[in-house]
Structure formats: structure tokens, C-alpha cells
Amino acid sequence: xxxAFSNRHDLAVVGGGIFxxxxxxxxxxxxxxxxxxxxxxxxxxxxxxxxxxLMPHMPARWNPKKEFQFQSLMRLExxxxxxxxETGLSTGYGRxxxxxxxxxxDKFDHHLERAAEADERWQPLKTGFTYQVEAQGSRADWLSxxxxxxxxxxxxxxxxxxxxxxxxxxxAFVREHGTLIEGACFEAFDEATGAITGKGIxxxxxxxxxxxxxxxxxxxxxxxxxGEMIGRGEKGQALIMEGAGLEDLPAIYCDGLYxxxxxxxxxxxxxxxxxxFVDSAVDPVRTEELIRRATAxxxxxxxxxxxxxxxxxxxxxxKRDALVGNVxxxxxxxxxxxxxxxxxxxxxxxxxALVAELTGSTPAVDLPPSYRPGFHFxx
Length: 379
Prior knowledge:
It is a single chain. By secondary structure, the chain is α/β, with parallel strands linked by helices. It has 2 domains: 7-48 and 164-231 and 319-376, FAD/NAD(P)-binding domain, CATH 3.50.50.60; 95-157 and 233-316, D-Amino Acid Oxidase, Chain A, domain 2 (2-Layer Sandwich), CATH 3.30.9.10. Helix content is 31%, strand content 26%. The chain has helices spanning 18-29, 64-87, 105-121, 124-127, 163-177, 216-226, 284-297, 343-359, 373-376, and strands at residues 7-14, 34-38, 53-54, 98-101, 131-134, 152-155, 159-160, 179-182, 185-189, 196-199, 205-212, 231-242, 251-254, 257-261, 266-270, 306-317, 323-326, 333-337. It has an 8-stranded mixed β-sheet, sandwiched between helices. It has a 6-stranded mixed β-sheet with strand order 8-2-1-11-18-17. A two-stranded antiparallel sheet has the order 3-7. The model has no long low-confidence stretch (mean pLDDT 96).
């Protein structure tokens, strides 16, 4: 009997952000036929931000989640090199390192302990990545000594990427090897037939399995499927300033903000985090706050021109960790969401693990138990 659907794929991915495109990329590399459905345009949601901070968890109280992120950041450079070679596009990736100011004696002592644990967990002799406590006044050409009266931590695992350039490279690969439909607003998936419906979606579209990777909207879809609202959106805001001469400096994390120099002569500052918000529009008051706070600990930003400001709604699971895997009670529906602030650093391994689940293969790195659906859903 002929297939009623003229446009059938092995996999449909809902969402053209970093999780959705990374999953599509990985699935295509595994030989699956893939369609990505993005309701607006690539990077229209939280993944279209500007910060690009690839920062590791602290090397203390080690657990599977921290190990997964460590492995992700360790392996990201090779992954990025492959993607850039395949597409001919730069992602703005670089291993920039990070400065953390120490403001009290207790923090100084605490980070000495973390440095010792980093020697065990990061294995600097093998990996080359170090976590060192340096004296007060160190790197004062970048971080104000007043912001770090008890010295600093300087670690070399942290990196940066240009978020929109990274998305563009992934999207280019998906367009060439699969199908990417922008302006396609997903509404429903019939698990019996594989039919996918929604505004901007042709009636003949079907898929064997579906992955929900549409950021905060994934939570609404999951509620309709399971009856449980297991996450929410949180608003964030960041900005880009002119950064000529700062390109080779490390990122700084101070006063709850990141300052991240990029290789294109810009510097990103962010981000805020608001659980209560009216919309995703840029708030000028928040913009001024970001500039004021960042220039206070980073004087070389003073007087530099603001080039662009971004605001968006990021997905955050109620239990904080990302959610990846098969949706309970729905054999052919999967989900990848809730990466919140660390999505860019872990997306490639999230994709590897989920596609391994789809194909019955072994992932490069096992997902932490707290990323699995059984951790997030009651049923």
C-alpha cells in the first residue's frame, strides 16, 4: 500500500535553536533523513543571544552532571573544527580562559581547595587545562584590582563561541543534507501515522519520530502530552560593545556578569536573569545596569560604543538540569530542552546521546541521571 505522505522523514525536530540544530546535524551524520521545523527563523529564541560563554562548572563536589559538562567542553574544539571544515563557516570558537575575582579570605581559601580538586578532575598534565589561584593585582590590565582584593582564579578550560555564527554553520549543514523549514509552527504529531500538523506545514509531512527542542515552548507541548508542567521560561538580556584590542583577553565572571571578548573585535556582556517578565523585549534600564556593573570591574570598557542589545526567554526546567530523552507514555516523541545558560557548551553531546537513543547505539558520553526524563516527570 503506498504511503499517504509524500514528504516522510525518519526524524522531525521542532525548533531551530542550538539543541534542535545540533540534534539534526548529528542525526544526518548517522544517515537519518531529517526535517527541522522552526516557527520563526533560525536563532529567533534564546539561542540567538550574543554572550557565547562556554564556562565549566566549578571543580568541587564532583558529580555526573559536572563530568558530562567537562567532557563536553573537552570535546567541543574537535567538534567545531569538523563543522567548520564541512561548511566553510567560522563559528568564532576560541579557548579564551576565565578570570574569577576573589573578594574575601574565605573565598581565597575555598578556591585553593578547588584548585587542588581541579588537579584531580581536570588532569592538567594530560589535558593541559589548569585552575590556578593568583595573587592580588594579577591581570590588573583587564580586571580592576579593586574588584579582586584577595586575588583571582585563572582557569584555562573556559571558551567562547559566536552563538549566531555557530547556529549559521549548523543550519547550513542541515539545509544541504536535510530539510529546514522556517515559518513552520508545529502544533501536533500523530504517533499512529506520523503526520505533523501546524501553520506553515504542508499536509503531506510525516516523520517516524519527533524531537521537541523548541526552548520554553517545549514545556507547553510536554504538558499537553503528559499533564505536567516541568519547566518555565526566564528572561535574559545581554549586549555587544565595540571591543577592539580586547580580542585575546580572557573572559571575566564578576558581580554575577560575564564579560566575553570575541575574535571579531567585539565584547559581549551579560546576562541578566528574570523569572518575572512581561515580554521578551529589550529593557533599556537593564541595558544601563549591564554597562554600569561591567565597567565597574572592567574599566577598559568605559566609553565603548554599544553595538547591539539582545533579550530573550531561556528554557529552565523546574529541577534545573536539562531534559533529554523519550517523553513518558509516548514511544515516538522525544525532548531536548532546559539547557538554560550552558546550552552551547553541551549541545553537541546532548545531540550525540539523544541520537544514540534513537538509533540504539552507544553515546560517546552517557547522560547524567539528572538529565533523564525519569528525574523530571512524576509518572
